[in-house]
Amino acid sequence: MKHKDRNDCWLLISGKVYNVTQFLEDHSGGVKVLLAASEKDATDDFEDVGLSDDAREQMQKYYIGEVDATTIPTRRTYKAQTSTVATHQEDPGFLFKII
Ligand code: HEM
């Protein structure tokens, strides 16, 4: 999970770890998707894209090892984005008295 930026990016796909640091700029799907797939189990993201056999073959170049599955968090905790609630904080300038 520490390997998650442009200078050091590892991916975890199907229990295998890939060091894609050198590949980031060459990835035709873009750098961002790979960075977004780091720091977690990227298996589902990867399978959802449905990459070609060629892509799967290329992956082998970046394979660096297996991960101990018991150390993978089962669920990633996402911090919900705080929604922008429109509030009217300006002074209305006048008040109605409600009787
Ligand atoms: C070592 C891992 C990976 C390799 C070697 C790789 C390689 C490739 C290659 C060769 C392509 C060109 C299209 C194709 O051949 O299917 C591609 C496209 C793409 N990849 Fe990856 N990829 C990897 C991981 C990922 C991951 C983890 C994601 C997303 C979570 C991803 C998302 C995409 C997307 C969105 C495209 C564009 C698909 C399109 O043009 O329709 N890739 N990748």
UniProtKB/TrEMBL annotation:
Keywords: Heme, Iron, Metal-binding. Residues 1-68 form the Cytochrome b5 heme-binding domain. InterPro entries: Cyt_B5-like_heme/steroid-bd, Cyt_B5-like_heme/steroid_sf, Cytochrome_b5. GO terms for molecular function: heme binding; metal ion binding. GO terms for cellular component: membrane. It comes from the Eukaryota. Belongs to the cytochrome b5 family. This is Cytochrome b5 heme-binding domain-containing protein. The lineage of its organism: Eukaryota, Viridiplantae, Streptophyta, Embryophyta, Tracheophyta.
